[in-house]
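@here heads up, posting the sequence + SMILES for the guanosine-5'-triphosphate run so it's all in one place. Ping me if the SMILES looks off, I pulled it from an old spreadsheet.
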Amino acid sequence: MAFVDQAKIEIKAGNGGNGIIAFRREPYTPMGGPYGGDGGRGGNVFFRADEGLRTLMDFRYNRHFKAGNGANGGSKGMTGASADDKYIKVPTGTIIYDDETGIQLTDLTKHGEEFMIAKGGRGGRGNMRFATPANPAPEISENGEPGMVKKVRLELRVLADVGLVGFPSAGKSTFLSVVTAAKPKIASYHFTTLSPNIGMVKLEDDDFAIADLPGLIEGASQGVGLGLEFLRHVERTKVILHFIDMSDDSGIEESKYNAFLQIRKELETYDPTLLKRPTVIVASKMDLPESAENLAIFKEDLQANNFNNLEIFEISSITQAGTKKLLYRVSDVLKNLPKEEKNAKNEENAVYNFIDETAEKFHIEREDDGLWVIVGDDIEKLWAMTNKESEEALLRFGRQLRSFGIDDALRESGAKDGDEVQINNSEFTFEFSD
Ligand SMILES: Nc1nc2c(ncn2[C@@H]2O[C@H](COP(=O)(O)OP(=O)(O)OP(=O)(O)O)[C@@H](O)[C@H]2O)c(=O)[nH]1
Ligand SMILES: [Mg+2]
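bot reply: prediction finished. Complex structure tokens:
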């Protein structure tokens, strides 16, 4: 069972519907005015944060998301129906990256927060809209604009006030199950917890969220065990509870002090600022007979190594001794955090420009067989929106090519009248206009 908190998905917004060519049919008039309606708008695609979701598991099986296309225009000047927008629900705490550029697009931290990831195409114009005094009966319409296509990477980073860290079986999940309504899996074997569990602590005057994280072992920061998966989540918690199993049965050969150092080292290797985060040491399983003595030795070792300012709380999740006291302390620490840290989770979203102004307008490639290929988003889009059945529309496209500077560019590259040119897999013969 893999721990899924990353996923790559593909998104396609809806195409606009095509505009159509139609004419009024009136008695005694062989051809009335233009009467072809516009196409409807294609559906946009949004992400929406939902606190009811906990993992990105669903995206493992479901990787393609598509909004519907707009309907084509109708004959009596009727505009085609627009498609519904599509909403993709993701857990709160999901960060969205453009998978092609690696750029962070947004970080959805609040329940219900939305982000438009792909814009639907606008409807193509019907021939009614092309009528001019000089051309009162145009036989031209426009196809719908293609919807945007996006490849994104989703990454879930748990948003909780408090993170429980420690070796496997230190008693983290048991603690969560005792102080919150969460029901995490608890067992005596290591790595029982594979993905974060979150619970809400409700005190008389305070609420806060605790994330029970998968156990950490040496080398985690280099990817051993559940390693980085786990550390990524710690990054967004404001207070760390470092659990150390004080019983003899912890499965850790070395001293409690060494166990303590190992976890700190992993945190530090991953992100040195984690050691500066408010941390409380939780001496767990204090109901077991040998725990008191082990704790005493641990405290001596700390002192001998000049760790003087650490707060240590003794608890037993079985008898619940010490658990309340610990929660009140955590609540105090949270209330006294400096302002910036309180807001740390509202990191700024990157400004997302749908139009990449830095992209080149177009370029021309030559294939071995002499074919000229024109590559460029804008020109490909214009071609897609050209109604290939309409002579007038094709002429209009020719004018657009010229205004893009493609005629000149082809000429400079050495293209001659009658050469084959390709845009978006369609080929046509090029004729220069002088
Ligand atoms: N005696 C005693 N046993 C405890 C206490 N807390 C947890 N345990 C036991 O310790 C074992 C491990 O507990 P978990 O809560 O699953 O440990 P964990 O830290 O979540 O472990 P991973 O999910 O593997 O990282 C279980 O068998 C628990 O019953 C405690 O306070 N006293
Ligand atoms: Mg656990």
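MO: The domain at 363-429 is CATH 3.30.300.350 (GMP Synthetase; Chain A, domain 3).
MO: One more: The chain has nine helices and 18 strands.
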